[in-house]
């Protein structure tokens, strides 16, 4: 039975590891990506740079550039703005999702410290239930454990 897709190349693996593999290379319709081996629609950084270059130097409209490079108009606008602000670094995709423990506050960690001081070692499952009762915030036990470990590490690093 023949494979429906070619096996991933080494370049695919390198791009994926670097976080630069374009999830939708088939959407890139700019002629340069069809006519040259140099231009690779799988390389999101190269696609974004060429999109910004075409807007800036070739005076392509944002809408036309977004269409040719397979992105939404807001994505194209953000790329042009990010390049103007940060250069090539601004075109590197950022990690999606929260960048840290956004729900766990210092007051919650102090509460855990006080509770453990009064009641001894307590499971994180019990602590998240107590935090939900007290603060009205639902946490995952593992998230609380990580936040406590980070806090402990910071304390141990102080002189």
How would you describe this structure to a colleague?
- The chain has 159 residues and is mainly α.
- It folds into two domains: 10-91, no CATH class; 106-153.
- It is 58% helix and 0% strand.
- It has eight helices and no strands.
- α3 (44-56) runs antiparallel to α4, α3 crosses α5 (73-86) and α4 crosses α5 (73-86).
- The longest helix is centred in the C-terminal third of the chain and has 17 residues, at 141-157.
- The radius of gyration is 24 Å and the shape is elongated.
- Mean pLDDT is 90; it is low at 1-6.
Précis, in short:
With about 160 residues, the chain is mainly α. It is built from eight helices and no strands. The N terminus is likely disordered.
- Total strand count, please? 0
- Number of DSSP helical runs: 8
> What structural category arises from helix and sheet content?
mainly alpha
Tally the structural domains: 2
Identify low-pLDDT runs: 1-6
The Cα radius of gyration reads 24 Å
Q: What is the percentage of strand-forming residues?
A: under 5%
What is the global morphology?
elongated
How many angstroms separate the termini? 65 Å
The percent of residues in helical segments reads 55-70%
**Sheet of most strands:** none
Give the arrangement of secondary structure elements.
Layout: H1 10-18, H2 31-35, H3 44-56, H4 62-69, H5 73-86, H6 106-119, H7 124-135, H8 141-157
Helix pairs in contact: 3-4, 3-5, 4-5, 7-8
Notable traits:
58% helix; mainly alpha; 159 residues
